[in-house]
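does this look right to u?? thymidine-5'-diphosphate version
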Amino acid sequence: SPGMAQLIDLPVVTDPRGDLTFVEGGNHVPFDIARVYYLYNVPVDAERGGHAHRQLQQVVFALSGSFRLRVDDGKAREEYWLRDPRQGAFINRLIWREMDRFSQGAVCMVLASHPYDETDYIRDYDEFLQAAARARVR
Ligand code: TYD
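got this back:
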């Protein structure tokens, strides 16, 4: 199986001055990028996420440091350790996600398919399970 959070490898241009990675919406990620946000100053014992989205698609990167990404499609769970700024995890709609085990100074960047919309969030796990089950029979 391709996994619930497909890993995306971005290009890297390396020369003696360092590494350069770039990302183009619709090319390296499968949507037009409408929003970028990032998490930083995250306490090492913090837990982020704890929700799913009805429509939003995202790609999550560890630009610096590392963290654990746990994903759940309502039937199975997987976990990924993100630690390479060239490699993102694509998270489709209707995937419950949790992020924790942030290293000191970690920076998590997220590319998102839509602007912020609180009504797109599913923050109740049982409601998520019902929505995921409905989506499977559709
Ligand atoms: P949330 O998405 O719950 O954070 P995480 O999943 O990383 O733990 O968002 C936390 C708060 O920030 C919440 O009050 C909504 C707000 N927020 C915005 O205003 N705009 C945004 O683009 C995002 C991602 C969050």
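The mean pLDDT is 96. idk if thats expected tbh
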